[in-house]
C-alpha cells in the first residue's frame, strides 16, 4: 500500500449509477482497491456521493433501455468520486465498474 510520501500516481474515478445499484457498484470498486486513502489511519472505502437528476433524449437510431425515442427522459442518479492510488488499482477499479454494469442488482 502506498504512503503519503509515495511516488505512486493518484487518480480520481468518477461515475454515475442508478441509486438502486449504488451499494453494489461501490462494493465492486472498493473490492478492487479503490477508495483507499494513503497514509496513517488505514482508511478504506472512501468516496464522495451526491444525488442528482440525469437527462437525455434518445435519437432516431437509439434503442433505449429507459425512455422512448425522441422523448426527454429524466432519471435519478448518484455521482460517485473516489481515489485510486496506482495505475494497477485504477485499472482494476475500472474493470470492476464495467463488470458491475452487466450484473443484476438487489434492492
Automatic annotation (TrEMBL):
Q: Which Gene3D superfamilies match?
A: 3.30.70.120
What top-level branch of life does the organism fall under?
Eukaryota
Give the residue range of the signal peptide.
none
The record's annotation in InterPro entries points to: DUF34/NIF3_sf, N-reg_PII/ATP_PRibTrfase_C
Q: Which SUPFAM superfamilies match?
A: NIF3 (NGG1p interacting factor 3)-like
Q: Which PANTHER family match?
A: NGG1P INTERACTING FACTOR NIF3, PTHR41774
Q: What is this protein called?
A: ATP phosphoribosyltransferase
Q: Which organism is it from?
A: Daldinia eschscholtzii
